Amino acid sequence: MNDDKIQRQINEAAQADALMKNEFLWEQFAYLENEYTKAWKVMPAKDTDGREKLWLAVNVVGKVKDHLQTVLNDGKLAKRELERLTSKQG
Asked: Distance (Å, rounded) from C-alpha 35 to C-alpha 62?
């Protein structure tokens, strides 16, 4: 891994960490998941396209949350790699 990529991952992890700690953002994720789920439950069974779109919407919210966690984890690994490289040079 090159230094630029390591630094970019560390910077992105810091931004992801700030988002992960943002209570408002998590409230909005919960709100969307709840609204999509409520709409899905009352949608007629014969509206398979509509039900599928709502199911996908709920899953997209989950994927965004998972992605933020992945970016944070990648940044932690990059930070350790940078520390390892720095300690070898020093």
From this structure: 14
pTM of the model: 0.82
Distance, CA of 29 to CA of 59 (rounded, Å): 11
Cβ pair 61, 33 in contact under 8 A? yes
**Domain range for 15:** 3-89
Domain count, the chain: 1
Buried b or exposed e, range 11-20, using 16+ CB within 10 angstroms: ebbeebeeee
pLDDT > 90 fraction of the chain, expressed in percent and rounded = 82
Q: Is the pLDDT of residue 1 over 70?
A: no
For residue 21, pLDDT beyond 90: yes
* C-alpha to C-alpha distance for 24 and 48, rounded to whole angstroms: 32
Burial (CB count within 10 angstroms: exposed 0-12, middle 13-18, buried 19+), residue 51: middle
